[in-house]
Specification:
280 residues; alpha/beta; D-Maltodextrin-Binding Protein, domain 2; six-stranded mixed beta sheet; 10 helices; 11 strands; 21% strand
Length: 280
């Protein structure tokens, strides 16, 4: 029987151990981010910049809506959920039931829900009450708010959208009009309004390009404002919200490093670059 060469065996084992250690250091850390379509362009920018600075980290960003992101967080198919609204109590309860955790809410940017209209529309400002009456279908003609004698065409988001939920709760405060066309993304809402002289829509400030922005005022006696860094910070713009990241547990390791970076001065400058507003 051939004798075992202990020295040779030890050499082989040491090489194998070295290879395992090297591989563990070389294997990229994968972070998945899913949810809010409002936040997709911001999250993709964050991921792109962070991965350049940290090539051993792979960050995958997908949209689908805030509700889709929350569901993915609950069923374990994403590490980070992007949401343009707060998680509901029923969603938190599901998270607790499955993971015995209430989750961690991380405000990461601010947004001013922007009202889009055609560039040919002569209406320049609306009150919160007028917006409520328009999107609930009680005001149906532009002439009732200072515009042309023509039917108002409504465009909005689908019900899985955090923007849909936030706008309904904060502004409409009723059911949306059945005539409101629901579209699968803010870019689609903007494109629809661009092509429709009688259209009006709503969505994130970062998407407001190539259309008319209607200023918003709290009531008849208030000043009308557009969403800007100054009006958001001062609280003057009346339809302001936070954008959130949600995780199941307090983040650690590379995920914590990534989230901390998004909240840093370096990460927050991309919030402004994309068209949203810094969280601090």
């Amino acid at each position: 029987m051939e004798k075992i060469n202990l020295k040779k065996l030890a050499t082989i084992l040491s090489v194998l151990v070295a290879m395992i250690i090297t591989f563990s250091f070389m294997a990229p850390t994968r972070i998945t981010v899913k949810g809010s379509d409002t936040m997709v362009i911001l999250s993709q920018k964050w991921a792109e910049v962070y991965m350049k600075q940290n090539p051993n980290t792979n960050i995958q960003v997908t949209g689908g809506g805030s509700g889709t992101g929350v569901s993915a967080l609950i069923n374990g198919s994403t590490d980070i959920c992007n949401s343009s609204r707060k998680m509901s109590q029923s969603e938190i309860n599901k998270l607790k039931e499955r993971y015995n955790t209430l989750g961690v809410e991380i405000p990461c940017a601010k947004d001013g829900i922007t009202i889009y209209a055609s560039t040919s529309n002569k209406v320049s400002e609306l009150t919160i009450k007028q917006l409520s009456l328009i999107f609930s279908g009680k005001i149906k003609n532009w002439i009732d708010v200072g515009g042309a004698d023509a039917e108002i065409k409504l465009y909005g988001r689908e019900n899985s959208s955090g923007t849909y939920v936030f706008f309904k709760e904060a502004v409409v405060k009723a059911d949306y009009a059945p005539s409101c066309q629901t579209l699968p993304g803010t870019a689609a809402v903007v494109n629809a309004v661009k092509k429709d002289a009688l259209g009006i829509g709503y969505g994130g400030a970062a998407y407001a390009a190539g259309i008319k922005i209607i200023k918003v005022k709290k009531d008849d006696k208030s000043t009308a404002y557009e969403a800007t860094a100054e009006t958001i910070k001062s609280g003057q713009y009346p339809i302001t919200r936070y954008l959130y990241m949600y995780v199941r547990n307090r983040p650690t390791g590379e995920m914590k490093k990534f989230i901390d970076w998004t909240l840093s001065a370096d990460g927050q400058k991309y919030v402004t670059e994309i068209g949203y507003f810094p969280v601090r």
